[in-house]
Amino acid sequence: xxxxxxxxxxxxxxxxxxxxxxxxxxxxxxxxxxxxxxxxxxxxxxxxxxxxxxxxxxxxxxxxxxxxxxxxxxxxxxxxxxxxxxxxxxxxxxxxxxxxxxxxxxxxxxxxxxxxxxxxxxxxxxxxxxxxxxxxxxxxxxxxxxxxxxxxxxxxxxxxxxxxxxxxxxxxxxxxxxxxxxxxxxxxxxxxxxxxxxxxxxxxxxxxxxxxxxxxxxxxxxxxxxxxxxxxxxxxxxxxxxxxxxxxxxxxxxxxxxxxxxxxxxxxxxxxxxxxxxxxxxxxxxxxxxxxxxxxxxxxxxxxxxxxxxxxxxxxxxxxxxxxxxxxxxxxxxxxxxxxxxxxxxxxxxxxxxxxxxxxxxxxxxxxxxxxxxxxxxxxxxxxxxxxxxxxxxxxxxxxxxxxxxxxxxxxxxxxxxxxxxxxxxxxxxxxxxxxxxxxxxxxxxxxxxxxxxxxxxxxxxxxxxxxxxxxxxxxxxxxxxxxxxxxxxxxxxxxxxxxxxxxxxxxxxxxxxxxxxxxxxxxxxxxxxxxxxxxxxxxxxxxxxxxxxxxxxxxxxxxxxxxxxxxxxxxxxxxxxxxxxxxxxxxxxxxxxxxxxxxxxxxxxxxxxxxxxxxxxxxxxxxxxxxxxxxxxxxxxxxxxxxxxxxxxxxxxxxxxxxxxxxxxxxxxxxxxxxxxxxxxxxxxxxxxxxxxxxxxxxxxxx
Length: 704
Description:
Layout: E1 2-3, E2 10-14, E3 18-22, E4 27-31, E5 36-39, E6 41-44, E7 50-52, E8 56-61, E9 65-77, E10 80-92, E11 110-114, E12 119-128, E13 141-148, H1 167-170, E14 176-180, H2 187-190, E15 202-206, E16 214-218, E17 222-223, E18 233-234, E19 248-252, E20 255-259, E21 264-267, E22 274-277, H3 287-327, H4 330-339, E23 348-349, H5 352-358, E24 367-371, E25 374-380, E26 386-392, H6 397-414, E27 425-429, E28 436-440, H7 447-452, H8 465-484, E29 490-491, E30 500-502, E31 508-510, E32 517-518, E33 525-527, H9 539-544, E34 546-548, H10 549-565, E35 570-571, E36 580-581, H11 582-591, H12 602-605, H13 611-624, H14 635-659, E37 699-701
């Protein structure tokens, strides 16, 4: 592993909020005829005032290799600065022939990963996806490096494999951008401390609401260094003769005034009529008459100005709402609605004023959670109904169109669905800067939280096997409804435990239909760029780019394994190369006779008299995770089997309760699980290449 030191960095440019540096280091994986050599890269800014900018990207260049990134960022959540761990990865593939990057990435032989805001520690490594020993003549190495996305051209990348060019030479053109600030306190906090860094005649500016810290800037009309005493000094604007040639300039703190000398009247400002000599007033007009006329003129002018301002403000407000309506996809949503015979149905269109009132102007105390697509607030409507309001995050113009498409897609799909285990969309608002969605309120959070939050388990609500089986049956019923009971089949495409919510009675409801798709009656699959959440993606979809209903079945199988084991889809270790897939660990335990109990959650193991039901669910999960999609059951079959197991469990629980009333009834012995001997080895049937429009798509997941 290579840990770079700040002595190796070279400063290229310094601005008011950023520093550009050159870091001549990279991660690599090189293949010899008989050996493989790897080099990791670690960047550590945790003890500095710097953080990696969002304009950086982790770029991998090479063939059939996986770039894995782990690190942590600073996230400011009042009143403290906290650490947010993250991990991500992407795969670069090469088709036959030379690299063809066409000036952009993703492309053939390349993939990129965004850098989270506030990142202070960054470690990247490269792992091989297939045996390349003996095939190293044209592309012997893969490289991963971090740098500003616009600081290098991808057309030159293919030269890396043509001597005498080397990666070290090419890295001379790659810049890394660092954001800087003073401390971690906001301006309001820092002003009360003895070490406040802004001197006189300067403003304190919060550097970043999500990371903390502040910067200083001189007031308008002042110049100097706001970080050193005595601070910023007044600029004498009169030295540049800013007034009319007939006027006089008077310098004031931070600004100046252009007036007329004694005996003159008029306007002394530049580009005006200038100053004229004073003439005696008409003797027929008394001072009182002049005052009355002037006063009436001022009152009239003020009245007209007030009316015009009110009219213009109202007109601008209307234009702004129309702009946001169009920007947020309102016209496209209307088009979708008309095409689908009034698909909006009972979905309510809320005004911005209603939702601001419901959330106390989106007060931070109302935040239920934050995610990659925005923030969810708890609100109360005027009729007393409690709701959850999702406010999309502000993004740049390149991403906004994609988010609007997901927003419209979710609204259109949810208005077609009426199922007790699908979260209900109550309405939306399109007249704000970002679109707002209003859902029914789910009091008990996500299924992911209940499975994996160690501080929550076994307290007020033990997450028992009975509850896990009930939730599994409810999720399966909802997915079966989407696949086979709607007018057109709907593929969810992002089934995971964090997209399952639980209401006040712990009824499970499926959430987040932003990437879902409806199919025509004669369609069996979707051909798309591979995207999803790492650990839940169907391997068959990953290789073929063809998403089928069995891809949702695979993702549901991962959720079943989470319920059985209490483990996350990716089991992280201190060494990134030792990270394990939960699916592979589960299938391995199922293939080893009598070894299933070693991976099961303790609350599942302790379920009295339910070992047959647990084993049946484990076998069902194994069928859902079959690498051959055709051999997996469909969601309707999965739903029926889980419902049958649940009904059997209810009956056996009643019988067991009656038997336990008899003290002579013997206690159960230790739970021993036996599984059938299935062959679930992963055999690659292709050369791991894809014919989709993009050979690579980054795979993101949340780290613990």
